[in-house]
Amino acid sequence: MDEFVRTLIETGLLAGLGLLGAVFFRSSFRWKWLAAALVLNLVYQALLTRGFWMIPDPFPGADWNWAGKFAAVTGTLAVMSMPVFGWKRCGLTLDQGPRWGGAIVMFAGLALLFFGLAFSGTDGKPDGLETIAFQWTMPGLDEELFYRGTLLLALNEAFRTRTNALGAPIGYGGLLSCVLFGLTHALSYEAGAADFDLMTFAMTGAPSLLLLWMRERTGSLLLPVIAHNIANGASTLF
């Protein structure tokens, strides 16, 4: 049950930060949407971890958690299909909006950075086909649809006040989604003890701010999904 406890800690931290934000953004805060965000995270983590690792892997020979990722994507798409969320409101659209130019520049810069880092750290041994296929598809699809899609919508509705940041409307809800993204990578729980890796938090939470900016600038998940998969996949090729 370690994964379940870790998820409760993570969700509790999100709740605490959400209630703190409610103090500062009282006039625009809507508690039902914060509650929805907390429920979404619990359900998402349960799907991603196959019932907190209690459900056997249907692909026992796989090196990666394909089943959990597919379940999480399916669950997220089901939420997006609900009228209160909606495909386009969650960013599931190819329309990049009128201010896509700046986002393309950011995307190109990130892509060059990720490929540069991957090439500079090459060991001359490309990964196996399964690893390449997984890293170039599932992280971006799964995590962007949730963190920059349904979760972001819920948190933006919970905290409706937003500020123009270089052409992208960023609010407290968006920042919370990035904090949670960093937490889910940096927080672990095992044998009755929680552990938090600050470096992992920084290396995942900080780039997620750029993904958030592209998402809010364009209104679409397209560039964040591709950029995320480049970040995960570039190193598998060298």
Please tag this protein with its features.
238 residues; mainly alpha; two-stranded antiparallel sheet; 10 helices; 4 strands; globular
Q: Name the overall outline.
A: globular
Looking at how many chains there are and whether they match, the oligomeric state comes to single chain
- From the alpha-carbon coordinates, what is the Rg to the nearest angstrom? 18 Å
Distance between the termini: 37 Å
Mean pLDDT: 97
The beta-strand count equals 4
Arrangement of strands in the largest sheet:
1-2
- Put simply, the count of helices is 10
Strand content: 5-15%
Q: In the residues, how many domains can be counted?
A: 1
Order of helices and strands: HHHHHHHEEHEEHH
Structural class label? mainly alpha
| Major beta sheet summary | 2 strands, antiparallel
In helices, the fraction of residues equals 55-70%
Residue windows where pLDDT falls under 50 for at least 5 positions? none
